[in-house]
C-alpha cells in the first residue's frame, strides 16, 4: 500500500482525494489544505471542499498559511509518507519537502505545456479551445514545469462553463491519476520532459479582465462570460454602475457595440463588434442574481432599444 500525503483545496481536488480514499492501493496519511476563509457578503468562515472530505474520513488535517518553514511542514515530513499528491493546492512546495519523499506528483487541469498556472480552465474557455484536459506531472520548484507522467483530454462543449468543466476534468484527473500512479511508482512509466517552446501561462484572472469590451465579437464575449462563470463573473456598466453578466447566448443582430437591439418582456439582445448576445442571467448593482425576464420586469423595466451597456 502506497502511503500518501494529499494536498489540495477546491472541489476539483476533493474529487481526486475521494478517488484515492476509495482505492485500496493507497493509504492517505494526512491532508494539507488552505486555511478556512471568510467568504461572501456576510464574511462567513468557510472550510475548503478538501477539508470537508478529510473530516468525513477522520483524516489528520494541516492548514498552514504558508507551508514553507512552518511547523506543519516538519510534522508532515515526520509522517513517513512514500509520496505527495497535489491538486489545485494553491502554494508552492519547498524543495526540502519534495526531497523528503520518494515521489511528488501534481494533477494539473491543462494539457501541459499549455496553460501553466492557476487558471487553466478559465483560459481554455476564454480562448475558445476545442478541448481541455489534465496532466499528471512531477513536482518541481518551478510552477507546473515538471516532467509529464500522463495526460488525457475531453471536448469542450458549447454549454460548458468554468463550473461544468471543473467538474468534468476533476473526474478525468481522478481516473488518470489512479491509472497512471502505480506504473509511475514502480518505474514502468517514464515521465516525458515538457517542450519549453510550447509553454503558455494561465495566471489568475485579474479584476480588469472581468470587464466586457463590447467592441469584441459576440463569440469572444460569449467565451469570456462562460470562462468566468460561476467565478469570478464578467461584468459591464449599466447606468454608470457595475452590472454582472453570468450567462449569455449567441444571437442574431447587427448594431453598435453595447447597444440594446431587441427588448421584450423575456429577451434582451445587445450588439457587439461582430454579431450579438442575448443576456440570460444578470445581476444589477445592489440586487440579487436573476434571470433576464425578472430584470426586465423589475430593475430593468426602463431599458429601451437604443440604450447602451458599457457606458
UniProtKB/TrEMBL annotation:
Residues the record lists as binding (6S)-5,6,7,8-tetrahydrofolate: 110-113
Family annotation (CDD domains) = FMT_core_Met-tRNA-FMT_N (cd08646), Met_tRNA_FMT_C (cd08704)
Tell me the Pfam families matching this sequence: Formyl_trans_C, Formyl_trans_N
Q: Name one GO molecular function term.
A: methionyl-tRNA formyltransferase activity
Sorted keywords for this record are: Protein biosynthesis, Transferase
Enzymatic reactions: L-methionyl-tRNA(fMet) + (6R)-10-formyltetrahydrofolate = N-formyl-L-methionyl-tRNA(fMet) + (6S)-5,6,7,8-tetrahydrofolate + H(+)
In this chain the Formyl transferase C-terminal domain maps to 204-299
The organism's superkingdom is given as Bacteria
GO CC annotations? cytosol
UniProt xrefs under InterPro entries: Fmt, Formyl_trans_C, Formyl_trans_C_sf, Formyl_transf_N, Formyl_transf_N_sf, Formyl_transferase-like_C_sf, GART_AS, Met-tRNA-FMT_C
Domain Formyl transferase N-terminal as annotated: residue spans:
3-179
EC number(s) from the headed UniProt entry: 2.1.2.9
> Does the keyword Protein biosynthesis belong to this entry?
yes
> Cross-referenced HAMAP family, in alphabetical order?
Formyl_trans
> What family does the Swiss-Prot or TrEMBL record give for this protein?
Belongs to the Fmt family.
NCBIfam families with a match to the protein in the record: fmt
Q: Briefly state the protein's biological role.
A: Attaches a formyl group to the free amino group of methionyl-tRNA(fMet). The formyl group appears to play a dual role in the initiator identity of N-formylmethionyl-tRNA by promoting its recognition by IF2 and preventing the misappropriation of this tRNA by the elongation apparatus.
Protein's recorded name: Methionyl-tRNA formyltransferase
